[in-house]
Amino acid sequence: MSALVIAGREPGGNAARAAGQPFMAETDIWITVPHERPARICELQLLTLHALCDAVDLQLLGDADL
Amino acid sequence: MSAGRELDGTDATLSYDSLNYDPRAASPCRPHDLASMLEPRIQQHFFESADLSYQAAEAMARPIADAAQAIVDCVTAGGRLWVHGRGVALAPAQLLGAALSGRFERERPGLAAMVLAVDPLLLSQARGPDDEAPAVTQLRVLGQAGDVRCVPTTRCWRPSWTPRTSAR
After folding, report:
1. Could you tell me where the DSSP H helices lie in chain B?
2. Which of A42, B21, B31, B162 sits at 20 to 30 Å (Cα–Cα) from A35?
3. In what order do the strands lie in the sheet with B81-83?
4. What Cα–Cα distance (Å) separates residue A65 from each residue in A62, B52, B102, B105?
5. How far apart are CA B65 and CA B56, in angstroms?
6. Is B167 in CB contact (< 8 Å) with chain A?
7. Partner residues linked to A2 by β-bridges
8. Which ipTM value was assigned to this complex?
């Protein structure tokens, strides 16, 4: 089962990821919000989800005038 | 004083005058001073958020496109999407679950997506081995190879969020 993670950036978080976290598999997708502040991460997360849902709709239904 | 008089709207004891309370006098700052002090700080949130959105657009577009592809590949192959988030990430998790299984902006057949462990009973009782989080327990039981788990979080990934399972 692959994982799709939408996470924020924590001090040391990206460094740990660059070092190769054993609990993340090759097929996992990591969407990192490049900020430490939780409020900003929440905002970008919401934006990310809207973009993601729109991208899924586009893939399944094709382009259409909204 | 009778109870009937206290509840009577015309009773003078309920007025601001009788309480000796003036909201403007009681405030340490006059309203317009307070607003002029707060406005730049409030605006700063908008500027900072806009800056971050603008800067992140390029870096985040590729992983989001990959994620959309993974979701489409999963559901078209008969897999299911398990969405879970804890704390403040519960709201985006539920939003994503609703948008995938219901609709986002356009009508389409629902996708096989489900939000895990939001029931307080489950959260309090369904503890797996080694104090595993309820959502992780559900995932271990329900998840199959080919499924995708979607995890919005405001923190960094934790090893404990990965179910000890051979489904991977």
Report:
1. 3-7, 16-19, 23-26, 31-76, 90-101, 120-125, 134-142
2. B162
3. A29-33, A2-8, B148-152, B81-83, B113-115
4. 10, 29, 20, 11
5. 14
6. yes
7. B148
8. 0.83
* Chain-chain contact of A1 with B165 (C-beta, under 8 angstroms): yes
pLDDT in tens, A29-43: 888 888 888 889 889
pTM of the prediction?
0.74
Q: How far is B54 from chain A (nearest CA, A)?
A: 11
CB B88 within 8 A of CB B154: yes
CA–CA gap between residue B60 and residue A43 (Å, rounded) = 14
pLDDT, tens digit (0-9, with 9 covering 90-100), for B97-154: 999 999 898 898 999 999 987 666 666 665 555 566 777 778 888 888 889 988 888 7
Which residues of chain A are within 8 Å of residue B71 when distances are taken between CB atoms? 4, 52, 56
Identify which of B141, B95, B121, B74 has the alpha carbon closest to the alpha carbon of residue A27.
Answer: B74
- Residue B89 to residue A54, Cβ atoms within 8 A: no
Taking the Cβ of residue B69 and every Cβ of chain A, the question of whether any pair is shorter than 8 Å is answered with yes
